[in-house]
Amino acid sequence: MKKKKKEKAGKKLLLGLALRYGLAILLGFFIFAFYLIFTPATMFLLKLFMKDASISGNLICKNGIAIEIIGACVGGSAYYLLLVLNLLTPNIKARKRVLMFLFSAALFFIFNFARLFLLLTLAFKGVNVYFYHKVLWYIGSTAFVFLIWLLCIWIFKIKEIPFVSDVKSLLNRS
Predict the structure, then answer these.
(1) Range of 140's domain?
(2) In terms of DSSP H, where are the helices of the chain?
(3) How far apart are CA 109 and CA 65, in angstroms?
(4) Rounded Cα gap, residues 69 and 84, in angstroms
(5) DSSP bridge pairs for 62
(6) 1-39, pLDDT tens digit by residue?
(7) For residues 46 and 118, is the Cβ–Cβ distance under 8 A?
């Protein structure tokens, strides 16, 4: 009887792993969806907050300066990373998983919008923002994704570690 329960638990573990990792990989092919969602949302908010700028499509003009908001500015890969961290963490119920992702995506959207708004404001005042842009994107965004993930762990009371907990489970089953 114990052997059957153990086999059933092992099959359930493998099925869960296959589903979560398969979904993480599959969604990587649809990363463009993050850009399709967050580019228009970002541009909409910029139109609301930068009323004195001329905004057409992804181009923002003010004081003779034109700045294009490209896909990388929107940070689709950061949303995907948050999603992958979420999917590669075992033992989270589907509802909590969805709420965690929505929460983390909303926080990153707010951070990224604030970053863009600050850089645009400085650029339109004549400040050379190239250095700040690089620092805020490469260091700031990476740090912020990490902090968002830690906040999710704390708020949603997550006990597992992405990928590592899965490896430990597999090693314990063998």
Answers:
(1) 2-173
(2) 2-28, 32-49, 71-74, 76-87, 94-124, 130-134, 142-155, 164-173
(3) 25
(4) 25
(5) 65
(6) 577 777 777 788 889 899 999 999 999 999 999 999 999
(7) no
> Looking at the chain, how many residues does it have?
174
Residue with tokens 């490209």: 70
CA 158 to chain CA mean position, Å: 18
Distances (CA, A) of 151 to 41, 43, 54, 95: 24, 27, 37, 18
Q: Rounded distance, CA 174 to CA 171, Å?
A: 5
Domains in the chain: how many in total?
A: 1
Distance from C-alpha of 145 to C-alpha of 107, rounded to nearest angstrom: 9
How confident is the model over 77-115, as pLDDT tens digits?
999 999 999 999 999 999 999 999 999 999 999 999 999
